[in-house]
Write a structure and sequence with these properties.
The protein is an alpha/beta fold and 155 residues long. It is built from 6 helices and 5 strands, in the order βαβαααβαβαβ. It has a domain of 107 residues: Hypothetical Protein Ychn, Chain: A (3-Layer(aba) Sandwich). A 5-stranded parallel beta sheet has the order 4-3-2-1-5, sandwiched between helices. Helix 1 runs parallel beside helix 4. The two termini are 29 Å apart. It holds the Pfam family DrsE_2. This is Peroxiredoxin family protein. InterPro entries: DsrE2-like (IPR032836), DsrEFH-like (IPR027396). It comes from Leucothrix mucor.
């Protein structure tokens, strides 16, 4: 029997969008899947050493809020930081692992973390800001893996 494969494309760089790729990848790896996460555009934030990611409800009307909040209030200075603090507290209170811990778990489980080289170049990113163990590849390299994957997710 051949090993199953999971390919994930991560394009978002906010705290709330950082959890799905790492949760799904670590779970798949635990189930025996060969797993890769291809981080591109804003998803490259997930590979930085400093994971100071924010939560934004703008453009995310499904986000549960403690009270209804008009979009205008959400755009006020400091609201994003306040919402991030509230989300981190809720996650801690519920025993949800820190995003950095989930990323470490992925690396321990041999999930391959890929940075889109074209995006790194486009945004003139300093690769010294990224964690160790990241592979810098083009889309063609990811397609070699994704083309043979059993599951391919775009997050």
């Amino acid at each position: 029997m051949t090993e199953k494969k999971l390919a994930i494309i991560a394009t978002k760089g906010t705290l709330d969008w950082g959890y799905p790729p790492f949760i799904l990848a670590s779970t798949a790896a635990a189930l025996g899947y060969d797993t890769e996460i291809f981080c591109t555009f804003y998803g490259l934030q997930l590979l930085k050493k400093d994971l100071d990611l924010q939560v934004s409800s703008l453009g995310n009307p499904g986000m549960p809020m403690p009270m209804p909040m008009p979009v205008l209030l959400q755009a006020l200075p400091g609201m994003q930081r306040m919402m991030t603090v509230m989300m981190k507290k809720k996650m801690k209170d519920k025993g949800v692992a820190d995003l950095g811990e989930l990323r470490d778990l992925c690396q321990e489980a041999e999930v391959r973390l890929l940075a889109c080289q074209m995006t790194v170049d486009l945004f003139e990113m300093d690769t010294n800001e990224f964690i160790d163990g990241v592979d810098y590849v083009g889309a063609a390299s990811f397609f070699e893996f994704a083309g043979d994957s059993d599951i391919c997710l775009y997050i």
